[in-house]
Design a protein that fits this description.
187 residues, alpha/beta
């Protein structure tokens, strides 16, 4: 088994993207569902801790499909007699964070075409898998890895621009089908 840097499983979004399942996101999801019902906020927070505890102590995998996660949350609420809260669950997924440095590592130094293919696969998987926010990070490190240099050069600046333009192009292409998607390079 792989040791995760945090104890909650990742959430699979689409075929090639993962998002961190975070305590704050779970709590916010259940708290929003409880608003306007007879369920007090403290109870929604307690249920959130119970779902989190199940995922940490009893869920055997390191990745859970988003549909499976929401089905488990709804089943938990239904078992507590809270079908009206389960019906209000907003299935907005947590942000997908894509490491450009990791994609560059997988592509290999000098293999820019492989990098762009892998990046497009990750972006489209997240977008069409239901993510509403996709953040790319590690741009400078990814560029230096692809160029095989420790010092920032003119070639690095050129490749940085190409990657930025590529992400913008994919964002515009995906926006036709998913206008609510936020796709950005965070750093």
């Amino acid at each position: 088994m792989i040791a995760l840097p945090h104890s909650l499983p990742y959430i699979r979004i689409g075929s090639a993207s993962l998002a961190l399942c975070e305590s704050d996101w779970l709590t916010e999801t259940l708290t929003k569902a409880a608003r306007g019902t007879d369920v007090p906020i403290w109870m929604a927070q307690d249920i959130s801790r119970g779902v989190e505890s199940f995922l940490i102590k009893h869920y055997k995998g390191t990745v859970i499909d988003s549909e499976d996660l929401f089905a488990r949350i709804e089943k938990t609420l239904a078992s507590l007699g809270l079908n009206h809260v389960a019906a209000k669950i907003d299935k907005t997924l947590p942000p997908v964070r894509i490491s450009l440095s990791e994609i560059a590592r997988r592509a290999g130094s000098g293999y820019e075409l492989a990098f762009f293919r892998l990046l497009e696969e990750q972006l489209k998987s997240a977008a069409f898998g239901g993510a509403t926010v996709v953040e790319c990070h590690g741009l400078r490190n990814g560029v230096r890895r692809l160029v095989s240099t420790k010092k920032w050069t003119g070639r690095c600046e050129l490749l940085k621009g190409e990657i930025t333009e590529f992400v913008d192009r994919v964002r515009n292409e995906v926006a036709r089908a998913r206008p609510e998607l936020t796709l950005m390079i965070a750093s």
